[in-house]
Protein 1
Amino acid sequence: MASDIAVRGATVDDVDLLHRFSIDLATYEDEPDAVTSTPQTLARDGFGADPKFAALIAERADKPVGFALYTFNYSVWTAARGIFIEDIWVVPEERRNGVARALMVALAKECMAKDYRRIDLNVLDWNPARGFYEKIGFKWIRNWLPYRLSGEALQKLATGS
Ligand SMILES: CC(C)(COP(=O)(O)OP(=O)(O)OC[C@H]1O[C@@H](n2cnc3c(N)ncnc32)[C@H](O)[C@@H]1OP(=O)(O)O)[C@@H](O)C(=O)NCCC(=O)NCCS
């Protein structure tokens, strides 16, 4: 039942859980080796003096059943910050019970409270999670394509070689 779900902010004591859930999501997305962060880097980067991300944990009967990990962006056009969801994951046995909706409601409330104007995310084209996003009101922005500069190409542009 959705009313059994509690959502709370993650703390430094949750870094092992955040790390495990991140690996579960990467494995689901066919990139089991993509997570090179560790619980230690999560503690450093999420819960130090200058946090680079924040996270919410959903629990049922005090047992963690899902999480959302997010960063912040800023629009110069609207002079407002927004949330970018890096990871959202619900353990398979708890899906379709309102857990991810509860996480998204908490994020939407944070936006309302802090005057953040939007929530963005990327989703793989094959992922049925698209149905979830569309169900709760996300729109697919069809005329924008994600581009990235990283690895050797980034180094090459920086060094000219
Ligand atoms: C996508 C995911 C987070 C959804 O979590 P969930 O807890 O099952 O979602 P909820 O139960 O809160 O669903 C909310 C609504 O979306 C609908 N929904 C959920 N998953 C859906 C799907 N795959 N397709 C269509 N609708 C879906 C639900 O039916 C529900 O509708 P309702 O409110 O009318 O009943 C979960 O399936 C998951 O962890 N998937 C694997 C990880 C993943 O893909 N993460 C996203 C990476 S971009």
Protein 2
Amino acid sequence: MKFACGSAKIPVGGTVEAPILNSVLQDRTIDIGTTVVWGNVSGPQRTVTAGTPVEPTGVFVIEFLSRGDICSFTFTKPGTHVYYCRFHPTEMTGTITITGG
Ligand SMILES: [Cu+2]
């Protein structure tokens, strides 16, 4: 699992931003090896939690993303991951699709 927050270095390879703005978690389609960077642009605390509230997958879990915080995760396997915010599990959901490999 390659996961970085705060001042940690963004790994080598492509990066794609997925800003969290107006209570929306973004959908992104990326190539394998790409790092998705989530930043809490506005609003209260968020989480970026892989899976669904009923069935979290644990593939990536970013807890307590306060306003201004930036976290990232590098996807090294193809697949599709739905994700959600634990504080707003029905309104805030998104999908990351990883192609290639
Ligand atoms: Cu939320």
